[in-house]
Amino acid sequence: MNWIQGLLIASIFALVVFLLRSRRSVQSQAWVKVGFLAFVFAGVYAVLRPNDTTVVAHWLGVDRGTDLMLYALIIAFSFSTLNTYLRFKDLELRYARLARAVALEGAQAPLE
Q1: Helix pair 3-22, 26-48: axis angle to 10 deg
Q2: What are the DSSP calls for the chain, one per residue?
Q3: 29 closest CA partner among 74, 86, 70, 72
Q4: Among the listed ranges 9-23, 46-60, 69-83, which one has the minimum average pLDDT value?
Q5: What pLDDT band is residue 1 in, cutting at 50, 70 and 90?
Q6: pTM to 2 decimals?
Q7: Are 54 and 64 in contact (CB under 8 A)?
Q8: How far apart are CA 68 and CA 5, in angstroms?
């Protein structure tokens, strides 16, 4: 196994741990936004100067710049998918709590 493959696998696990441990804190939300902006800027740079991605890929031990971009997209997709899943799970829990509160508020005592 190439060292870049180990690094990519470790980064996916690190993202999973990051999302599971601190997804509600304001600081982690800020880091997610900073990471997203950095990824967008890196993508724009890669489109404008595709030969530079090949140079960076060679530094990292990857054959082509397109392979490096694919690896980055896999990590970004994994992060995005997990982040969306966790958000929907939180929303589902909030809706369930809201439905319970509304049901209890509108509940009437049984007639005897």
Answers
A1: 140
A2: --HHHHHHHHHHHHHHHHHHHHSSSHHHHHHHHHHHHHHHHHHHHHHH-HHHHHHHHHHHT-S-HHHHHHHHHHHHHHHHHHHHHHHHHHHHHHHHHHHHHHHHHT--PPP-
A3: 86
A4: 9-23
A5: low
A6: 0.71
A7: yes
A8: 11
